[in-house]
Amino acid sequence: MLDLVGLGTVATAFFVAAASPGPATIGVATVAMSGGRARGLRFGMGLSVGLSFWGLVAATGLGAILQASVVALTILKIVGGLYLLWLALGAARSAAKNEGAMPEAEGAGSDFKRGLLLNLSNPKAVFAWMATLALDLSDRTGTSQVALSTTLCMALGVAIYSCYAIAFSTLGVMGVYTRTRRVIEGAIAGLFALAGLGLIRSAIVRQ
Q1: Stretch among 20-24, 124-128, 160-164, 187-191 having the lowest mean pLDDT
Q2: Per-residue model confidence as pLDDT tens digits over 157-171
Q3: Based on the number of CB atoms within 10 Å of its own CB, is 19 exposed (0-12), middle (13-18) or buried (19 or more)?
Q4: What is the C-alpha to C-alpha distance for residues 198 and 72, in angstroms, rounded to an integer?
Q5: Which end of the chain has a smaller Cβ tally under 10 Å, C or N?
Q6: Do 136 and 7 contact (CB within 8 A), yes or no?
Q7: Spatial CA neighbour of 125 closest among 167, 89, 161, 92
């Protein structure tokens, strides 16, 4: 028997975690502001697929194995941190340019791939999934409940990133971005750099 209260709890917790400011939401907002709605939606879809991958990992119990594997987790954190630093470098270079907007990505799949890689390189996503799904687990929880919770959260991920892409690709927001592009890109570079260094630090320093 499905537990609707449990589903609601999971959905609420996941929404708060996924919609909160972080590398993924900052990334889709930036792409939408600089490149328009279509690019933002493609980037958001890539983020959604990457997030869904970690959801499947958590739902099948592989997340616990990953968390217990010190070597695998350390490697994943370092790779993820380096990717965030690479994004920070790209944002810093964009901020240093005089052009008013980000150039069009090479091919329709480029934004999707960038979004996919961003969430795939974030090991914290699987831990967020594990913590969220644990809210709906009990001795009576069946596989159908876990599957429905996971599916619901995946759908929420698509909705959240799509809303970010739509909201930040309005003419007003894009106009503000155009006028203050260098400041925004510089701030984004700093945020990505802090996130990347923090991820690498967590891989090297044992808490």
Answers
A1: 124-128
A2: 999 999 999 999 999
A3: middle
A4: 18
A5: C
A6: yes
A7: 161
Tell me the pTM. 0.81
10 Å Cβ neighbour count for 17?
17
Q: Where in 108-189 does DSSP place strands (E)?
A: none
Token output for 3: 């537990």
Write the pLDDT tens digit of every residue in 25-35: 999 999 999 89
- 1 pLDDT band, cuts 50/70/90, is low
Judge whether residue 95 has pLDDT over 50.
Answer: yes
* Angular region, 105: left φ>0, alpha ψ -120 to 50, beta rest: beta
Three-point CA angle 195, 47, 18, nearest 5°: 65
Report yes or no: 161 and 28 within 8 Å, Cβ to Cβ: yes
114 touches 43 (CB < 8 A): yes
Which class for 201: exposed (0-12), middle (13-18), buried (19 or more C-beta within 10 A)? exposed
Alpha carbon distance 191, 28 (integer Å) = 14
- Look at residue 64 and tell me whether its pLDDT is greater than 70: no
Report which DSSP code applies to 170: S
